[in-house]
Hints:
alpha+beta
Amino acid sequence: MSVTIKKKEYEVQEELDENSAVVTRKGKTYFFKDYSEDEEAYKKWDKTYDRLRNTGIRYPKVFVNDNKQRKILMEYIPGETCLDTLMKGDLDDDTYEEIFLMACYARHENYTLDYDPSCFKMYKGKMYYLGFRLYPYEEKDAFQLSGIRWWVYTKDLVELLKKKDLPQDLSRLKPEFETNKDVVLLTVKHYR
């Protein structure tokens, strides 16, 4: 199976959902997104992409943005999402340093990101934001106040995993006091 964008054909390697796929052409791998059936979703993506370009937030490079057919070809970031990594064990300091940096960039531009860890990947020591969603900044939604609770094994993360129909390891849950202490210590160490 293949997809066409700007008169070039790409072989589908893996369908991720009905509108997204990992594709290849001439030995290079890309992420393909098709908004041809959803003009509003494309407009929202395009507007967010324009805003992201000026924030300092790292995201996959866009190689082709076909605004007539509403198809996008982006850099493919290999590896696990931060959620996949977190499900296996604790995240390392570099990951926390990077997410706090992203949150800082977003805050300084008056945005909040979608802090679901499945929207982020670490690749070659750098974090990439895959969510392509920006929200107006509100203090109550700041990463250090709410989003961080998805980045350590908390009840909030367990609820997120349930929503996604993913396995939960309740043996990793600590008492609430210890969890809150961990969250505060991470914030003190990495907040910018």
